[in-house]
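User: Round two. Same drill as before: sequence, then structure, for each protein.

Assistant: Same drill it is. First protein:
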Amino acid sequence: MFSALFAAYAVLVRGTAGGPAGAQLFNQVSVAIETACLLVSSYTCGMMSLAVNARRRLATYFFAVITFALGAAFLYLEVREFAEMIAHGATHRAAPSCPLSSPLSAATGCMSPPDWSGWP
């Protein structure tokens, strides 16, 4: 799924049809941190699985706590980012002028892409 989203991003990154570019919509540092949280949490989840299979209770709890903390950090950053967008006037209606909205909607599980017409 992630490879499909990255491919869609690579194809659509320049085709904004007059709408804002991704760099104008998203804080790139925040996106990098969110991505790192997801990737590292996938690793720690795998390590937790190995610890469960090896019946290592302390390691299982350790990796579970780390995975939970990374997931909580991701959710915090994501909610903060959406709150910032809403504060700037972005609404959640279909916006065909912003092709980046389709991969964004798929990644966030939204039914319709956001409307960036009010974005500065």
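Second protein:
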Amino acid sequence: MEPGPKKIRSCPVKVEQQIITVYNLLSEKDKRLYLAVEAVKLPRGGISYLSTLVNCSRTIIHDGLTELKAPELIPVSSIRATGI
């Protein structure tokens, strides 16, 4: 057995493409929340699977999961100010 996170069975290619397409259309905050919602649907190893799929840090998904559990932590402003 290989060390590290458990590899899960991947989604169908069409679903993976849809996840990537939607992810790329979202703001940073919405990306975190979207990936968190998708991760909740997947079994153990889902966070690693999603982070590899969309090429983002697992920390981003963990931050989204934290925000989902405590909605008051979700930033009110949706996008950073210009130039920051």
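DSSP finds four helices and no strands in the chain.

User: Perfect.
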